[in-house]
Amino acid sequence: MIFSFADAYGMGANDVANSFATSVASGTLTLKEAVCIAVFTEFIGAFFLGSQTSSTISGGIIDATRFKNQPELLMLGMTTSVFGSATWVIFATSRGWPVSSTHSVIGAIIGMGIAAYGLETVKWGYDGIAKIVTSCNGMPGPQPLIKELTQDEIAEIKEKTDIEEQKESQSFMGRVKKIALRGVNKDVRSLDNPELESIHARAKKYDNDTELLFEFIQVLTSCAASFAHGSNDVSNAVGPLSAVYHIWKTAQVPNDQTKVALWNLAYCAIGIDIGLATYGYHLMRTLGNNITYTTPSRGFAAELGTSLTIVTASRIGIPVSTTHCITGAMVGVGLCNGDMKAINWKMFAVCFLSWVITLPAAGLLSGILFALIAYSPQKNS
């Protein structure tokens, strides 16, 4: 349970930018407002729509029947899987890398399965890995097809510097408040990079009246994207947790008909909320204005494409990468400027490299830990 919560925390911290980075970057929402909205939308999406994809993660990657005679071995394997996934995602978040939490948990389960019974344990066909990998690689494509209309940055994050707050921060409760709100008091919009300024200068600018029309619907699409993220990514932590809980409760390996307990969904949804509220600002800096110039109209186009893609995939049981979707959408919107130099290709390369590393890194962590515990020398009683 601890590792599943840590995995959910890492997902919230790493993936919150997928939903609200464009809204904050364009000035439509402040970081505090975005976090307050996301806490509710992420939880609702995870709790009410997360069950189907959780089933795919828990039983659709490896052949669980191989553990039929040793269900406790599968319990150990799922525990090491969430450990490997959580470790990698939290590490990547600390480095500012927007990794795919979906790939992370898939890689961790693959690594555990190979360490347990070899390559044959993994479902490599379209009923397992091929289906998931195809969806992850293919999902960014549709987003650039959504027409973007443009806009300028409007609002700015205000810094609080009055004397009363300085006095409050010196008291005990002031220090507690400062620590609790640390994650939502960060400035994620400032641009000190001349290279980024030149990239933004190449983007087409439109009058503020036109852009103002998109602020409200951009917030709506951000909420939809956050709802979709919660429904899709909660499976990454809930899938292994539900398998462990089922084995503990019944002493049997779960099958495709095994239902996910509601408290499993709620537990991990809370972890996602805490992660995004306390550490989500890190990735907002990366996916905000660092890929291309972001305005409410551009953010609306990107988030609408992302949310439609993820909700559809979630309903048919395909766990897709929200990171891939929003990054592909942002690149597609940037290309609508008609200038290749309006996109920060260096940042896109960092994102792509982090995706490539994620699968083997999480798999190695999970597989090695599983092998050390399961196959270490034991004293016969």
UniProtKB/TrEMBL annotation:
Q: Which InterPro entries match?
A: Phos_transporter
Q: What does this protein do?
A: Sodium-phosphate symporter.
Query: What's a single GO CC term here?
Result: membrane
The name this protein goes by in its record: Phosphate transporter
Q: How does the protein's chain sit in the membrane according to the entry?
A: Multi-pass membrane protein
Mind listing the GO biological process terms from this record? phosphate ion transmembrane transport
- Say yes or no: keyword Transport present: yes
Which terms are listed as keywords in the entry? Membrane, Phosphate transport, Transmembrane, Transmembrane helix, Transport
GO MF terms held by the record: phosphate transmembrane transporter activity
Q: Where does this protein come from, organism-wise? A: Smittium culicis
Any idea where this protein resides?
Answer: Membrane
Similarity annotation: Belongs to the inorganic phosphate transporter (PiT) (TC 2.A.20) family.
Ranges that cross the membrane: 73-91, 97-119, 347-375
Q: Which domain of life is it from?
A: Eukaryota
Keyword Transmembrane helix appears in the UniProt entry: yes
